[in-house]
Amino acid sequence: MQSHNKSPVSRTLVLSQNLPQSENAPILEDTEALVRKITRLVNQATRLGVHNMDLRFANGTIIMSGFCRTFYTKQLAQEAALKVVGDVDLVNAIRVA
C-alpha cells in the first residue's frame, strides 16, 4: 500500500481593513463558507492534486495559488472553483511543477 503525503490546505482570508468590526463579521462567515466549498470542490475535481492550496480574497477577487503536476489539474481546479464563485473574479495562480 502506497502512502501519499498530502499537504493541508491553507486558508488565508484577506478582508478590507476599512470596514468597522461589526460589518466584518458577516463577510468573514460568508468568506469562510466559500473557502470551504471551493476547497472541497477543488479537492474532489483534482483528486487532491493541488498541493499547498491557498485562497486569498482582496478587492472582490479570489486568488487561488498552490502547485500541481499538470496543466490539466490546474484547469480542473479552476473549473471547480468557477462553479461557486459567482460574480467574484478568480485568478488561478496555481503553479505547475
SSE inventory with pairings:
Layout: E1 10-11, H1 21-46, E2 51-58, E3 61-68, H2 71-82, E4 89-96
Parallel strand pairs: 1-2, 3-4
Antiparallel strand pairs: 2-3
Helix pairs in contact: 1-2
Shape: globular
CATH topology: hypothetical protein tt1634
Q: What's the CATH C level? A: Alpha Beta
Looking at how many chains there are and whether they match, the oligomeric state comes to single chain
The main sheet comes to: 4 strands, mixed
Query: Which consecutive residue ranges, at least 5 long each, have pLDDT under 50?
Result: 1-26
Roughly how much helix do the residues carry, as a percent range?
25-40%
Strand sequence of the main sheet, in spatial order?
A: 1-2-3-4
Spatial gap, N to C terminus: 25 Å
The tally of helices reads: 2
What is the typical, i.e. mean, pLDDT? 79
Binned strand content: 25-35%
Number of strands: 4
CATH architecture: 3-Layer(aba) Sandwich
Q: What is the CA-atom radius of gyration, in angstroms? A: 14 Å
Description:
- With 97 residues, this protein is of the alpha/beta class.
- It has one domain (29-96): hypothetical protein tt1634.
- The chain contains 2 helices and 4 strands, in the order E-H-E-E-H-E.
- A 4-stranded mixed sheet has the order 1-2-3-4.
- The chain is globular, with a radius of gyration of 14 Å.
- It starts with 9 loop residues before the first strand and ends with a strand.
- The relative contact order is 0.19.
